[in-house]
Each structure stands twice: as C-alpha cells, then as structure tokens.
Amino acid sequence: MTGTARVRTATSEDVAVQGWAQDVAAAPDTWPFLSGAWLRGTTAALSGTAAPLHGVATRARGEEAWLPAYLFKEPPAVDWDPRTYLGWERPDGMQVCCGVETACGVSDEVAAWGVEAFFPAVVVGSPLGYRSEAAYNFWSPGLLGRLTDQVLAAAHEQGARAVVAPWVPDRRGNEEILDAFRGAGGSVGYWGLDDHLELDADSYADHVARQPRKRRQRMTADQTALARAGLQVRRVEGAGLEPYVDRIAELVCLNREKNGAGEEPHHISTVMREVLAAGAEPWGYLGLLDGQVVAACVAIPRGRRLFVKWAGFDYEALGTRSGLYFSFCFDMPLRDAYGAGMRWMELGSGAHEAKALRGCASREVTTALWLADEALRPRAAELLADFGERRRAAFDDPAPTASTPVLLPLAGATTPSTDSCCGGS
C-alpha cells in the first residue's frame, strides 16, 4: 500500500494497544515484542528506570507505525547500556547477552570517558524483546528512516548523550534505521546471529524424515534426554499459563544468570501478564518433578510464525547438563507449529551452533550507536567495530549473509552449553 497521504511523525509515550487478535490481523509479520501490549508491559516493568520515547508515524485513518525507544537517565542493566557495545565490562562481571571477551584495556578506556559521556541514554527498540525494529501496518518509502530520525531528534531534545539500537535484524527495510544513525554521525557494527527455521515439510514426521542422518540422531537424542529425566510434561495455553507466570520468570532468570546475563523476574512476569491480558495465546511447555515446575519454555504464535521466547531450567534439580533445552525449546514447539500449519519458527540468538546443527538458518543482527560528543565518535566507531568482530568470531560467522525469509512489506519486510540466554528474543 503506497498512497499519497502525507506521513506525520511525532514522539509519544504511548502506542496503540488493542486486542491481540486485532493486533495480529493488522500486522501479522511484526515481531510480538513490538506490539502495543508488549510495550505497555515493558513500560510498566521498567517504571522508575526508563521512560518511553517512541517514534510514531501516522498516515490515513487507522494507519500507524512506531519505533519503540526508552530513555534511561542512569546506567541500566548491562544489555541496555551503550558502553557495553564498545567493549566495556561491568565491575561485577555481568556480561551483555551472548557476550565475549574484549581487548585488554578497552573496558578501562571506555570507563575513563565517564558516565556523563553516555547518560542519559536512549535505547531504540524493545528492551525486553531484544529487537530494534519498527512495527507498522502501512508502507511508505523512507518510513523507517523517518521514524529513526524522529527518535534521534527527540533524544537530542531530551539531552541524551548516547543513542543505541542494539539489535537491528537483517530484515527488509531495516537498513534505513542503520543509515539514519550513520547520517547523524553514528556508527554500526556486528552484534550476532538470529536463528530461525522454515517449516517447509508437510508435517512434523515428514520434516524429520527429510533431515540428514546426523540431524535425525540429534533430534532423537533430545527426546531420549527428556525420557531419561523422568519429568511430567504439561502443555498449557493462554490463560492457563497464569498460575505459572512467576515460576517461569524465575526459571528464565536462572537460565540467564547461568549464561552471565542478568534480568529481573518482574520484567518477564509483567510483560507476560500484559500479553495474556490482551488475549494472546502463548504455548507453554512445563516439566514437573515431584510436583514442582523445574523446566519451562513459552512460545508465542503470531500469524504463521512461532516465536520461541522464554526458557528456563532449575539446575539444582536437573543439573547443568540435563540436555533438556532442545526438547523444550525446539522439538515440542516444532511438533505443534506443524500441527497448527505454521511456516516459520523464530528461535532468537544464543546456542547458534547447536541450532544450526538442527537445521536452523540465521540472519545477522547489527548494533547502531550515536554519541553526542563528536570528539569521541571516531574512537567509538573503532571500538564498536572491534567488539563486533570479536563477536563474529565467537559466532563463527566469517562473512555477512543475507536473510533467508522472504517477508511481506508490512513486516519490513554440539557446544559447551546449549542454553540460550536471550531465548527467542
């Protein structure tokens, strides 16, 4: 849809919140982490820490788009701290999601610039969804660039010293976000890989039958690990998840803590309850031992894509090498996705090699960073590039690769540990 009506952009603390079904119908290929309900939950979860500063565009009646953004006046969790993407490490050792070692002395160098060189800071995207992307139900040339310009301008007006879009996926149109940062004097660098799986077989059984022998063996080993664990597996949907929300959030945070990342249980529980209240029907996979939930995975169906988002395990009860991750986060959702006629599974970042060994493809994710201090920008660009190349080596991704899925214009188109710290984010 192109039209000739003038596109208007502005900054807002709110975006449209409607029922989940209506939201999906309006923009079926948009990430669920950008929906009005998800962002409302994010704003509530980050209350007192961050204030929404969303870029919003409207055209004709009912046509709207938004690029989420949040203003942090003080240093936040490490994943939302712009210094992290230059190689800075927190003194307590907490790392950015899927972190890597940085060059010697870099952390001290960035720290020496001072907190005032970065804060207040604006994080572009959905902080609790690990997505720096826009949601929209209409298309106009340059729309994403204009939204990004709007957020950058609003950040400047608010006195922000840094703006970071940490997780820009390689999807149609998103280059405009990166170009807007470049045009403002910012820089971009590699962040990581985002894994997904095309469901192009006729059924789950047909999918398995098509796989090479070693891949089938891995899937069988996943099922064997589950059988040996002796868990009672329970599948719950939608409102049926409510009694388990707090326990799921606790397990997810245990998973992130194990991988060196940090998140608060109330962040997850607040967003999950907001999404449920909007009428979403997430699929929950729970593993119980002696009546206690010790394993959990939650996947969110949206349109013809299934987003595997939250996963966590009780490592004291199961051990750190239980081998259950892919039973809960790949095999069970895969069966149900085929049963529901879905065509894609989105599995997020983390455990990339293990996902690739099970047939997943990947798209690259890029970080964009702008600093108000022009004197620091050249060195910041060097550090961002170095941090990205270290992450590229860690992901064993030698060269940029194009995104595999063909998306509609409305959408913008075995390892030491296989647990993913950011799930399907």
Structure in words:
With 425 residues, the protein is an alpha+beta fold. It is 33% helix and 23% strand. The protein has an eleven-stranded mixed β-sheet with strand order 2-5-6-8-15-9-14-13-12-11-10. Strands 1-3-4-7 form a four-stranded antiparallel β-sheet, covered by helices on one side. The protein starts with 7 loop residues before the first strand and ends in a 31-residue tail after the last helix.
Main sheet: strands, sense, barrel: 11 strands, mixed
Main sheet: which strands, in order across?
Answer: 2-5-6-8-15-9-14-13-12-11-10
- The whole-number mean of residue pLDDT values reads 89
| Number of DSSP helical runs | 13
Instruction: Please report which band the strand proportion falls in: under 5%, 5-15%, 15-25%, 25-35%, 35-45% or over 45%.
Output: 15-25%
Q: What Rg, in angstroms, do the CA atoms define?
A: 21 Å
Sequence of secondary-structure elements: EHHEEEEHEEHEHEHHEHHEEEHHEHEH
Q: Compute the number of strand runs.
A: 15
